[in-house]
Design goal:
seven-stranded mixed beta sheet
């Protein structure tokens, strides 16, 4: 009779002992982009950044990544998150970067963009930040044609394999895009 109660009691004790050894839950890590240094070039027009869109995984806060050998498959980190959605960060960067000076009667330009890549590409030795934006720039005047419609993309290697180094590399990739966009705007405004 004692054996009848001893085995279930022993199993219950082992089960309860196992519950006490659960590791703590992982901690969320949040990352933000540092604001780019404002452009020092001469303002060529009033520029309004109307909207920056992001679809699917890029509309969410988890950092998106893929592996070098399988870039068709995108994954999200569970505990490494952007502080704000990428579209909001890029919109704020563009507003800080592009000129806003009022230059008389010159027509204002309107910028619309869509994020098409905002990834960490992971390899065995490090990682690379990959950014791509589809940008459309038009005159704010009614019926005016689109002045620029282009896909801007850039990559920047991380200094090491950490997520923080990836974030710094993403800032570098975006800076390259912003500089190219600035050159294109200046070239169109001179015409």
């Amino acid at each position: 009779m004692i054996r009848k109660f001893l085995v279930p009691s022993l199993l219950l004790s082992l089960a309860l002992a196992g519950c006490g050894s659960v590791p703590p839950a992982p901690v969320d890590h949040f990352y933000r982009l540092q604001a780019p240094t404002p452009s020092t070039t001469t303002a060529v027009a009033n520029i309004e950044v109307r909207r920056v869109q992001a679809d699917s995984l890029y509309a969410e806060r988890p950092i998106v990544y893929s592996e070098v050998g399988n870039q068709r498959q995108l994954k999200q980190y569970h505990y490494h998150l952007w502080l704000y959605p990428p579209a909001q960060m890029v919109r704020d960067d563009l507003r800080a970067q592009l000129p806003k000076a009022n230059i008389g009667n010159k027509t204002a330009l309107v910028v619309d963009a869509r994020i098409v890549a905002f990834d960490r590409i992971v390899s065995g030795t490090g990682s690379t930040a990959q950014a791509a934006l589809e940008v459309s720039i038009s005159s704010s005047a009614e019926g005016k044609p689109v002045l620029i419609e282009k896909r801007y993309q850039a990559e920047q290697a991380s200094s090491d394999n950490s997520i923080t180094a990836f974030v710094v590399a993403m800032e570098g990739a975006l800076s390259k895009i912003y500089a190219e966009l600035q050159r294109d705007i200046e070239a169109k405004a001179v015409r």
